Request: fold
Amino acid sequence: MTTLTTLLKCVEVLRNEDDQMPAQRISAFMYICQHDGATMRQVADAIGMDLSTANRNMAALGKTHRTGKAGHDLIIKEHDAADPRRFTLHLSTKGKRVKETLNSLMGN
Reply:
């Protein structure tokens, strides 16, 4: 399987969650897969989005979207023990399963 074919299969795994999942949201999820416990600011800076956009994407990746709709339940937002004004981002049980699927596709 070529690298591009593998990449496409990985994107398809995430699009199974939402067939219109934006690339920014996919990038944010993959960043959290690699950086468990990252803050919202770290995700925003790494992906090149502003904090309000990151917040909307994290809400959609979480259990409940900011509009009250069901989210993807791929991440969990927790208050940072060192600074309760900040949140750290972790994979949910479902998010860990998706990460394992992605790693398997990538041959890891």
User: Anything to note?
Assistant: DSSP finds five helices and three strands in the chain.
